[in-house]
Amino acid sequence: MAHISTGVEYGLHCLLYLTEPAPGVREASVRDLAELQGVPLDFLAKLFTKLHKAGLVIATEGAKGGFSLARSASEISVLDVVTAIDGDKALFECREVRARCAVFDETPPVWATSGVCAIHAVMQQAEKRMRESLASQSLEDLAARMSAKAPRTFEPQVLKWFESRGANRRRERGGAATR
User: Fold this and answer.
1) What is the tally of structural domains in the chain?
2) 162-171, Cβ contacts within 8 angstroms, sequence gap of 24 or more
3) pTM of the prediction?
4) What is the CATH classification number for the domain harbouring 24?
5) Phi/psi class of residue 172: alpha, beta or left (left: φ > 0; alpha: ψ in -120 to 50)?
6) In this predicted model, what pLDDT tens digit does every residue of 80-110 receive, in sequence order?
7) Residue 36 lies in domain
8) CB 19 within 8 A of CB 55
């Protein structure tokens, strides 16, 4: 079972298209982002509602409306996105198994249950390191990695794709207005 959801993956992929410098479109509709990435529209809309409530994106109304980053991509960490979408849940939840040993006859000795469980301590340390790692990586960092990996022709292709989506919507609205 994954502890970081598919929603986080979808959200991060879509947010990368709102970063600058590459492959920035600055603002996009959830519909366009969902289609571009091949992710379910309804699910992505719910994710963007969470990202908006967390203050990571700004929604604009109107024909050219969509979402944009609420602050610089360098100021939004991967941990911010994980927390916005999945919440601030613990990686591990100790069930205090150590207190249920059959040898204890239903009354565990103090030595067995005092302090933090050794297993829980390891899990807390792992979670701390994971959160530090996620907090140290920003959307800007991810965008730079993506840009370095993609061929130079990719960014212009994405921008052209978004522009054609906008042109199609304008034509559709114009055609509907003349009918």
Assistant:
1) 1
2) 162/25, 162/28, 162/32, 162/36, 165/32, 165/35, 166/64, 169/63, 170/63
3) 0.84
4) 1.10.10.10
5) alpha
6) 999 999 999 888 888 888 888 888 888 898 9
7) 6-88+138-174
8) no
